[in-house]
């Protein structure tokens, strides 16, 4: 499926600053970037950074002089996903996880899974099928946490959200990740462009590692699971921030969009009768 | 300098469990493991894991049957360190950090640097020399945080310690890391064997990335900086736990030691008149 | 019903200290103290303090010289309680609460009801009968929070316990109070001697204000509700600490007991079929 | 000194709600309310509540029907304060505090003094004169915490502010109170109208109990200490909220003012050369 993604961000820079932006569509085996433009106006030479601490494709540049800087990113992406059937499946024992997966079991800045152990086991520990287990915790988040723009900030973590029960997509994702890890299911943060997100913005959801596949889950249920264009994955939002700013620069405006550049899109959401997960590769 | 390091840990295992231990001396360019033994009694085949999310050399094994399991680790290590002079140096701009260093700038589970930004800048922001800056924050921790065994637990983080001002080596390290990151100095957790630590135990301190070198700092001032045998580095204790246990197993006893297997050890601590840091490679 | 209550506490005092103890059985309309002894050995003149910030009967004394101080308290108490029937009852509107009740609606040190608003409403908001509502949240605490000696400390609050799901009687009480207040039900901390508590110790539970009566609830379900001898009530444990110590004194031993001094005790616990609450007056 | 104080608040009420407002100038020995008007439009009969849990004069009323409700409060107040000299004074021992003062030593919702014990002692424990000690901690807050509208919310507590070092008057007051209590100085929250506050709003500061007098301190240094009209005192903002709303009502606009109705006002701020405190009675 093809998507046109677009970001325009304007920064007011007051003193020499370094910006690291994380807005590029990832290039993976099944996500091809057909065309791409990254423009900084006024012109600044940017540096593309190899991935670190997860999947990402960050861009770094220095703004030497105060003023307004506009960043425009456009890409056309052709991506695909895989359907994985979990009917009759059991959880993978920790002894069989590839070593590279282990960091996604540990607690992180916004996902204090160590504090949610009992709660996660009390609520979801009895469910045998791993896919059903993550569906159950995703549904619990969806039913209990209210989506409220502006209700949380960059310090809000899963430990807050599990009790305060309000937040935005980032908070829904962090809570999903923390619950998975508390249940010994590796989980990571997914940030991307999302088709049919209203109002248009970057989106965050999460991936759980089930029997060898990273399966996508979205506790907000705001968008179809098959309309995502992946930007990055990481342990949580600390790894995958859209922008890291060093210096005195402030975002003054942002426009994001994700449009279908293809035909025949059939929205896919998880139901409660089957066991098929969506994996972006 | 040569050291004999030793660990003996006994676990009472109540049901099938997987243990991932992180007690092996790291093999690096300047830390040679001359001899090494890792014994599980009763015998279980163990799996050595390649490093993930930092430097480490973990060992994983499954205990299928309930009972007592004893793990013994012995090694003789020859390691060396480098002295780096920071007199007249300035901080490296973020624009020049290698991409692999960036994750050590971000907040992590126990090092919420995002919450310490103002405090760190109010207290240490005026110091120009980066080595002096980290010495200053290390000294501040040393003077203000009381070393109190048992005063904290596995959930205690830098955000707690900065106010509660009590803790163990792990807490001193987390606070040092959080303050560094808040000051845009990459920092990571260091866990190892430490010569002359009383009572003998694993030790934790931290490394700050100063002009291209990872320099060791220890806010506890409990041991010489040149008596360390590195086990692992990572973002914080979540990455570098001595043991991760999945299942129902409990540590029932532990013995750790680090002895000099050489002659002519001259203890090294940072003073306040020079600018030379210690880097383990 | 008559009970013999007893406390013996030994303090090691290292420098001049003031102790405020809160161990005396309260004298109320329905709790008569038949006989009572409060001995400090070596002898120190004590001062009985009128109640402040709740119901209590504290005793204050100064220890001028270092050494060991032993406090012994013995009393025989005759108390009674009232059975209140809530069948078919509705909640009292806030507009009708007596002004003296209002402080028990506000959040306090260990009962951050302001953070539990959504959670409390999502779980218990639909229950109409106020007694049934508090029974439901008490049962939820009982089923989900594990009673684990030593798992928490004097800083643990309801906001921690609701997620970490472990604690002691104090934590169970704080969570019950916080949930009630989040549901606009006034609630307060109750500390006392408890008959049949094993091992013997001071006990904590809570009272909810239902249609004009303070009804006792105990989410630990460790003891009969009709075997309590009230020491104090207050907003939370900050108001009703067994001991407040100013200076350098440390508790070195404690013995507490509560024995029946009567016959025909019939243990009373709330069931799920009736609507009758227990009120100590 | 005479002041005209004024509040106009508009609420959009969506369902039957009870409002408890805490905006009336307190009537005390030295604060006389010369004239006063409290108008609810459309007309609703209000109930004046006797003080509970501190000093306050709350007003309660029920809004039965959805719609807009406007509350207007106007008063002319004649108040005076006392100057207390602390030169050469020592702290009052706890053994001599009146029992009614003790609750102001305990931690409360927003003032977790129990967590600030070491920090407070490390920073201010060496200062002998109690007035100088509170001046020192007030100055520390003033120098280190940045006054930033909107940077905090109704859940922010002293434990957050001591590290995050940003906030509004409420946060400055909570931190001052918590530090005092950690130093065994009773302290309470003070809310009032403040002359020369820009932009005009309600103000919060705190009182410390020094040798028998409640002395006013304001770590924001935004207004003269002698231009305050007291509304309430309490343990913290939980006791003294301007408005407690039960039901679905939202503040849609607010105007507050405090004007001089007299002549010859000479602004008073604490300097660093004398030992004279201001006490409102």
Automatic annotation (TrEMBL), chains A, B, C, D:
Pfam families: Bact_transglu_N_2, Transglut_core. Gene3D superfamilies: 2.60.40.2250, 3.10.620.30. InterPro entries: Bact_transglu_N_2 (IPR048930), Papain-like_cys_pep_sf (IPR038765), Transglutaminase-like (IPR002931). Residues 161-221 form the Transglutaminase-like domain. This is Transglutaminase family protein. It comes from Mucilaginibacter corticis.
